[in-house]
């Protein structure tokens, strides 16, 4: 049995950022970081972006940990005793702690069929496997038209592979974009050589010896050498539930990222937190949130006692298009579009009751500080007053 002032369960971006946050306030207190992954912490965004374009090397995606971190890889915490402040992993090792962070992340939603033909694309191992498939000239069927599906489809097509993307919505990322922009993306992907099947539900996968066949609700049969599923994740809340912590689409935490017990914190994909700017609870799955929340939780574990008020961003690369976004970008909101060049450069403002809730800059970069300030101000705006507000 080993005692640690700080125990972090989860070895992703959130856990690594928490270790750095602890060091902001405690230069030497021992930290245990227990990770189910066999790889040390690494950044996830390059897995579907810059690693494919050669803009990042594999050795550049790993996250350096501060001194004094006892990193336990390929270990899962199976049991928590919150009253005794004790955790036990699958190798039988026991950790006692003063403060605990549940940075347990999320698990990809899985299809009830397809078996080993399906790559659920979340880890570095998934990247290596998909890269090998692409190098072998595989035919791909990508299920899901959201962030992961659209990025992976573009990455695979740029490698010269045959790619079909299938999803039930009318357009790519149409939960984020206005309908005409999502429809434009459909045609843009088709022009790039991707077969785009909209309004189609996948109802099964036939597993053969030489190939899989993806079955759609309309009777379509899509042969594939590899299927990639990007259909979302579910937060890993089992440990929290086992010790009686409140769970509601994630582990419920307060403004300081504390769970119902004051010595237990949660951050990243697994945490449901009160967004101080937007005035509602959110669970955010993007990398910027993982890093910012992790660092904030680590600082608070070490005594900072600071509310988490950061408004995280996310970005995406879609062939030659790219965008950055901050706040709540939801196609169900009122959207004010300010195109400098239609579909090539512009800014989308997402409003509720006249107040800006989110901003998306399309092929315009490094304007998120302006966007955050606009959201944080909370002022009411006439739609026409936003035109020209943010420019390159």
Task: Please characterize this protein's 3D structure.
The chain has 392 residues and is of the alpha/beta class. The protein is 22% helix and 32% strand. The strands form six sheets. Strands 1, 2, 3, 4, 5, 6 and 18 form a seven-stranded mixed sheet that branches. It has a five-stranded parallel sheet with strand order 8-15-9-10-11. It has a five-stranded antiparallel sheet with strand order 21-22-25-24-23. The model has no long low-confidence stretch (mean pLDDT 97).
Features:
five-stranded parallel beta sheet; alpha/beta; 25 strands; 392 residues; single chain; 22% helix; 9 helices
Short description:
By secondary structure, this protein is an alpha/beta fold. It has helices spanning 13-25, 50-53, 124-135, 147-158, 179-191, 238-242, 287-301, 368-377, 383-386; strands spanning 2-9, 31-34, 69-72, 77-81, 86-89, 94-102, 106-108, 118-119, 139-143, 162-166, 195-197, 202-207, 212-216, 221-224, 226-229, 233-235, 251-252, 264-266, 271-275, 280-282, 313-318, 321-327, 334-341, 345-352, 355-362. The longest helix is centred in the last third of the chain and has 15 residues, at 287-301.
């Amino acid at each position: 049995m080993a005692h640690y002032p700080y125990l972090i369960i989860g070895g992703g971006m959130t856990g690594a950022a928490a270790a750095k946050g602890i060091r902001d306030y405690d230069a030497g207190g021992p930290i245990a970081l227990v990770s189910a992954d066999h790889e040390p912490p690494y950044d996830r965004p390059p897995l579907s972006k810059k690693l494919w374009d050669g803009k990042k090397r594999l050795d550049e995606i790993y996250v350096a940990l501060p001194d004094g971190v006892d990193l336990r890889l390929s270990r899962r915490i199976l049991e928590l005793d919150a009253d005794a402040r004790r955790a036990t992993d699958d190798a039988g090792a026991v950790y006692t702690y003063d403060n605990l962070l549940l940075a347990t992340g999320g698990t990809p939603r899985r299809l009830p069929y397809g078996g080993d033909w399906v790559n659920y694309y979340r880890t570095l191992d998934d990247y290596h496997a998909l890269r090998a498939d692409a190098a072998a000239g595989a035919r791909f069927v990508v299920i899901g038209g959201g962030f992961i599906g659209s990025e992976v489809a573009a990455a695979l097509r740029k490698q010269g592979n045959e790619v079909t993307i299938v999803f039930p919505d009318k357009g790519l990322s149409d939960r984020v974009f206005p309908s005409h922009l999502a429809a434009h993306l459909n045609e843009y992907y088709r022009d790039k050589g991707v077969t785009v099947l909209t309004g189609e539900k996948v109802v099964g996968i036939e597993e053969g010896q030489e190939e899989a066949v993806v079955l759609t609700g309309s009777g379509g049969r899509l042969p594939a050498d590899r299927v990639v599923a990007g259909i979302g994740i579910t937060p890993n809340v089992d440990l929290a539930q086992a010790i009686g912590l409140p769970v509601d689409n994630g582990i419920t935490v307060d403004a300081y990222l504390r769970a119902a017990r004051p010595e237990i914190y949660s951050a990243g994909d697994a945490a449901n937190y009160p967004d101080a700017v937007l005035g509602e609870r959110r669970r955010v799955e993007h990398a910027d949130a993982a890093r910012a929340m992790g660092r904030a939780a680590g600082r608070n574990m070490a005594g900072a006692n600071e509310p988490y008020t950061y408004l995280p961003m996310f970005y995406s690369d879609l062939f030659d298009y790219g965008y950055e976004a901050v706040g709540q970008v939801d196609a169900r909101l009122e959207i004010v579009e300010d195109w400098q060049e239609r579909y090539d450069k512009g800014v989308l403002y997402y409003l509720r009751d006249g107040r800006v809730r989110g901003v998306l800059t399309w092929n315009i970069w490094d304007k998120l500080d302006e966007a955050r300030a606009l959201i944080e101000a909370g002022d009411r705006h006439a739609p026409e007053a936003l035109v020209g507000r943010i420019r390159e």
